[in-house]
Amino acid sequence: MSIHTETSPTETAPDVSNEFVRAEHLVKDFGQHRAVNDVSLSVAKGEVIALIGPSGAGKSTLLRCLNLLETPSSGSLQIAGERIVFEGDNLKRPQVLRLRRHTGMVFQSFNLFPHLTAAKNVALAQMRVLGRSKKEAMDRALTQLDRVGLASKADAYPSQCSGGQQQRIGIARALAMDPDLMLFDEPTSGLDPEVGAEILAVMRALAGEGTTMIIATHEMEFARHVSHRVVVMVEGAIIEEGAPEQVMSAPTHERTQKFLSAVLGR
User: Fold this and answer.
1) How confident is the model over 66-76, as pLDDT tens digits?
2) Is residue 148 part of a domain?
3) pTM score, whole prediction
């Protein structure tokens, strides 16, 4: 895969009947604060979803619920046929591991181990979670680092890499786990525009390959041109969703109009 590909996933829309993710009535409470409020979302295999909305809208919490880094307070979640209904403290670790096995997540912060090289950062989870041998994990790590354009940085430590390179290492680490679904939580946050463009190029290439992705982002042009569907969250709830051009150019909800007016300056 070249990170410079110009392939647009919107040119070949996925089969929406091929449902891969289904979240139904997800709720996540932190004490008296409801961070995710009755969210239902269906994602087709190969679909790219751009999750947009103001800061504090619940986008990051929703992604963490989809990966079970946060346990939803109620609702249900199904990924690749693995379904969990959240009722009290019924969640068991084997269920978490089975469902999480389908997902890879890239965070705002890079979360790399500073004492490990790029290749070892990518290999570690493979050995611990998937039980791969050191050789198999390292071979896979080198393949994925090359995939994101960082083959030359395999032996470099995070401190020897730029912010954009560290984020690409994080993407390689997630890809090395062979996930069915990639979750991105504001992956360009805190990066300057030129460096952020490196990350967006990698994600554009993944989308062109047909990778199923849900991306929380403030990059409106990326949402418009790379995603198949834009989903707008405000105060923990989905208030609008649809084709990128429809949502971005002719939003119907007043809160969507207000948000886009602020971020697009119109």
Assistant:
1) 999 999 999 99
2) yes
3) 0.88
